[in-house]
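name: query_chain
kind: protein
chains: 1
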Amino acid sequence: MSDEKRKQHCFFLLVRCNAYVSLLTIFILLTFTGRANAMVQDSIKKIHWLGHDGFRIDASQVIYIDPFQLKTTIPADLILITHDHYDHCSPEDIKKIQKKDTVFITEAASAKKLQGDIRIVKPGDTTTVGGITIEAVASYNTNKEFHPKSSGLLGFILTVDNVRIYHAGDTDFIPEMKNFKADIALLPVSGTYVMTAGEAAEAALAINPAVAIPMHFGSIVGSEDDARTFSEKLSGKLTVNILKREP
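structure:
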């Protein structure tokens, strides 16, 4: 074989090899993405909206976040409280679901209203309870004074069954959100005390989760119109799932 033909042969082998590697890479990425999407969809089935900012997540641990005006009272393994306002830290509702071994993750002001195994955290802290990793993150207002940054109020990023779930708490679109990594984002949309639907849509795009779920409407302030506006603003850009309130 001449040198020229040998070079051509090597070139064609290289092209075929690169094409094979590219196809294999695409296949791996599609497989991984498909599995990741399936995990997220499975996680959404475990998330129950209890109204306002309240949620229950049925995983290896039964997790509540900001339980308020509860109608369903499944006992809690873990309760996360974002801040001490009555519609987020409600001792009356907590009594309905607290067990002897229920663990609380919250900030200092809320801890004063609670009894039991209470673990106080501040933004930037990470803790693990029963295999659930909980990252405490900042949650505050930028253009109003209901939730000042200096108070150290909380949002949470939970890793549940390898899926990262972000509960924003009562917040505006804050700069920190651009660095948050989440598969599912629970975001307030009502305005007044928190982000408007439009601001929440901007926050969702910055976080870029697989699915965004609106909250903080239908009780005290906000309505389903806010949730629908949030969804409409993200149409074609990001998947939004408006959950029905737990009966």
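note: The first strand starts at residue 47 and ends at 51.
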